[in-house]
Write a structure and sequence with these properties.
With about 230 residues, the chain is α/β, with parallel strands linked by helices. It is globular and about 55 Å long.
Length: about 230
């Protein structure tokens, strides 16, 4: 009898210690093959395209390009690759955002190795998986419904991938020139993207943009960031 093919996993987290610990723990399992790692959303896109893993374990919040947006792009171009979002928080809105982006699993980082393995097996088999504690905090059926309704809601124009990147960089404290350098576009282009984002989100100032990004889980809350712009 032939041995089943191992589940090929890509690890994405901006903390070296987390990635290395996950690599050691998972690669010691005969049913798992860790095929690569990435420390940012952009690196994750390149690694996923190169390795075409079965599953990406994706940190939710990373600088530059967050895990939710990276998930959305991976699922768009690599439909066979599934994504399990790893997050330090158990907030309903972030779970909804992860589902909308195409994630099929959501794990809070306090879970142990046995639950990570359980999640990998479930998602690889074509099922959704959520940290066991999430069901105690909110109704997962309602979460699925909110994700579905958000997809069908056409009352607001959705942000483009580039506009989401601009919103995240604004919330991280970057000015227009810095955003332009990160995205390899002109300051004038950045200003145009920012104007489109503000119009779509119906925001009036920098502080409202930052609050919106925080609410969506695009960035970690950092008291050192100027909220008023």
């Amino acid at each position: 009898m032939l041995n089943p093919q191992p589940i090929r996993v890509l690890l994405v987290d901006d903390h070296d210690l987390v990635r290395h610990a996950l690599w050691l723990l998972l690669d010691s399992q005969p049913e798992i093959e860790v095929v690569g790692e990435a420390e940012s959303g952009r690196e994750a896109l390149l690694a996923a395209d190169r390795e075409e893993p079965d599953i990406v374990l994706m940190d939710a919040v990373m600088p530059g390009l967050n895990g939710i947006e990276a998930t959305r792009q991976i699922r768009k171009y690599l439909s066979r690759t599934r994504v399990i979002v790893l997050s330090g928080v158990a907030e309903e809105e972030q779970v909804v955002s992860a589902l909308r982006a195409g994630a099929t699993g959501y794990l809070v980082k306090t879970v142990d190795l046995s639950e990570v393995l359980l999640a990998l097996r479930a998602v690889h088999a074509g099922n959704h998986y959520f940290s066991s504690g999430l069901a105690e905090q909110f109704d997962l059926t309602a979460v699925f419904e909110k994700a579905r309704q958000a997809e069908e809601d056409n009352t607001e124009k959705p942000l483009t991938p580039r506009e989401r990147e601009v919103l995240q960089l604004i919330a991280e404290g970057h000015g227009n020139a810095s955003i332009g350098e990160h995205l390899f576009v002109s300051v004038k282009t950045v200003e145009a993207h920012k104007a489109h984002v503000m119009k779509k989100l119906k925001t009036k100032n920098h502080a409202e943009l930052v609050r919106h990004a925080l609410r969506l889980g695009l960035v970690r809350d950092n008291p050192s960031i100027d909220r008023n712009g």
